Structure formats: C-alpha cells, structure tokens
Amino acid sequence: MSELKPCPFCGNVTPAFMRQQGRYPAKGQMVCHGCGARGPLAWTLEKAIGTWNAMPREDDRGA
User: Fold this and answer.
1) With contact defined as beta carbons under 8 Å apart, do 13 and 57 qualify?
2) How many C-beta neighbours within 10 Å does residue 54 have?
3) Pairing relationship of beta strands 28-31 and 16-19 according to DSSP bridges
4) Residues 43-52 pLDDT 10s
5) Using an 8 Å Cβ cutoff, are 48 and 38 in contact?
6) pTM for this predicted structure
7) pLDDT tens digit sequence for 13-29
C-alpha cells in the first residue's frame, strides 16, 4: 500500500478513510479531520489513497 500524504489544504498528517453510509458495497473517500477536506470517492482503500496522494499540494507547485 502507498504511503499516505498529508492533507493538501491544511497539512494534517492523519486523514482517514470513511465509507459512505447506505448500501453495501459502499464507496469511500479520504477525509481530513483537521479542515474537512475530502478526496474523490473510490471503491477501495488503495484507490482512495492513490487519488488523495495525487491531489496537488503547495510543495508540488514550485512556488
């Protein structure tokens, strides 16, 4: 599994995977408990981490 990057908005290092409530199987997404940011919905934890890690971050923008 990939290493989880911090939140791209607030830098929180402990985002969590949250499943949608409702029917099973349910999609889920990475959620930052620091600022409330959410990643794209995904069917698996690995896919959710991959899309979360792909979100642009300040250090990626070459300020």
Assistant:
1) no
2) 13
3) antiparallel
4) 999 999 999 9
5) no
6) 0.80
7) 999 999 988 767 789 99
